[in-house]
Amino acid sequence: MNIRIVYLALSLWTLFLVTGCSNNQDDVNTTNKDSDDYAREIAWDFVKETGWDDGVKEEWQRAKVTKTIADNNYQFLGKAYKDNYEGKEALFVSFEGAPSILIDPNTNKVIGYKLLENPPVKGYIVDKSKDSIWVIPEIKKEEIIGKNEKELYALVMSEKYHGKGYSVDTKDIDKETVTSLQVGQKVVVKFDAFGHSAPRYAHATEIKIVEE
Question: How far, in Å, are 4, 6, 17, 27 from residue 13 at the CA level?
């Protein structure tokens, strides 16, 4: 009789342990899911604040969340962030059509981002200022040939081209190249950051004149 009681007690204890472990695992899975959802929300708020949300090709709730090590592949938000986080574990939230966001899993703060690799822009320069050029890919060479500054301005401000193209930031391009740029030239522009203004802002990393 005593043996049966001991056996029953052991069986009940084993069942309790198995059930408890199962519940603990469910709690871990739920916590991870909640953590990923929160990371998505933080990243998406940052994407919207910076104006990068227009290019998202999927629902932000489906963004992929993975663990990564913060390094030089990411643009950190200031030197202090780089000093504090480089080489440490972070959450990487990947959107389709928008820069990916790096989050500190301990503070839930955005610490950096990774920009999309943007294809080069090819088009004609229709305006130039000290630190920028306005490039419109859609405009044709025959539309700008022979036009004076006033006529060209009227064309690009017309309904057909108003707000089109890219306002290219040239501050980080060498002075010799910037000096050689002229209205009417065809150029290829490589850039690493963009905005959703009209015309679209683009920070140039390289500009080449296309010989025609």
Answer: 14, 11, 6, 21
pTM assigned to the model? 0.51
Instruction: Give the C-alpha separation, 45 to 135, whole Å.
Output: 31
Q: 115-136: per-residue pLDDT in tens?
A: 776 778 899 999 999 999 999 9
Concatenating the DSSP letter of every residue in the chain gives -HHHHHHHHHHHHHHHHHHHHHHHHHHHHHHHHHHHHHHHHHHHHHHHHTT-GGG--S-GGG-EEEEEE--TTSEESSHHHHHHHTTSEEEEEE-TTS-EEEEETTTTEEEEEE---PPPEEEEEEEE-SSEEEEESS--HHHHTT--HHHHHHHHTSTTTTT-SEEEE-TTS-HHHHHH--TT-EEEEEEEEE--SSSEEEEEEEEEEEP-
Distance of CA 181 to the CA centre of its chain: 29
